[in-house]
C-alpha cells in the first residue's frame, strides 16, 4: 500500500453503550448495544463514554476507533480508547 492509498483511510471514533438484556429462553442474560455515536476526535468519544457510563441505565460503555478503507468499504478491528463498566468480551464485539 502506498502512502497516498493510506491517506485515503477514514478514521471513525465511536462511543458505544450497553444495557443489560433479560435472560431469554436459554436462561442467559447478556448485553445489547444501546447507543452508537460517532465523533470527530478520540477525546470526544472517550469523554462521552465516561459520561454515559455514569448513567443509571447504562451497564457499560466503550470508546474506540476503527479505520475504514473507502475504496473497499473494509473496516478494521476496533482499537479501544476506554472500556468502562460491564462490556462484552472482544470476541463478542
Give the oligomer, counting copies of the same chain as homo and different chains as hetero.
single chain
Overall CATH architecture: 2-Layer Sandwich
Backbone shape: globular
The biggest beta sheet reads: 5 strands, antiparallel
Report strand %: 35-45%
Percentage of residues in helical conformation: 10-25%
How many helical stretches? 2
- Chain-averaged pLDDT: 89
Poorly predicted parts: none
Q: Which secondary-structure class do the elements indicate?
A: alpha+beta
Count of structural domains = 1
Let me know the number of strands: 5
**Annotated CATH topology:** D-amino Acid Aminotransferase, Chain A, domain 1
Radius of gyration: 15 Å
Layout of strands and helices, then pairs:
Layout: H1 3-7, E1 10-21, E2 30-39, H2 42-53, E3 60-69, E4 74-75, E5 79-85
Antiparallel strand pairs: 1-2, 1-3, 3-4, 3-5
Give an overview in words.
The protein is an alpha+beta fold and 93 residues long. The chain contains 2 helices and 5 strands; from the N terminus they run H-E-E-H-E-E-E. Helix content is 18%, strand content 44%. Strands 1, 2, 3, 4 and 5 form a 5-stranded antiparallel β-sheet that branches. The two termini are 28 Å apart.
Amino acid at each position: 500500500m502506498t502512502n497516498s492509498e493510506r491517506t485515503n483511510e477514514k478514521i471513525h471514533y465511536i462511543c458505544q453503550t450497553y444495557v443489560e438484556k433479560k435472560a431469554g429462553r436459554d436462561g442467559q442474560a447478556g448485553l445489547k448495544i444501546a447507543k452508537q455515536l460517532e465523533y470527530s476526535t478520540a477525546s470526544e468519544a472517550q469523554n462521552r463514554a465516561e459520561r454515559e457510563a455514569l448513567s443509571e441505565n447504562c451497564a457499560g460503555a466503550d470508546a474506540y476507533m476503527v479505520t475504514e478503507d473507502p475504496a473497499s468499504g473494509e473496516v478494521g478491528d476496533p482499537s479501544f480508547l476506554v472500556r468502562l463498566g460491564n462490556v462484552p468480551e472482544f470476541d463478542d464485539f
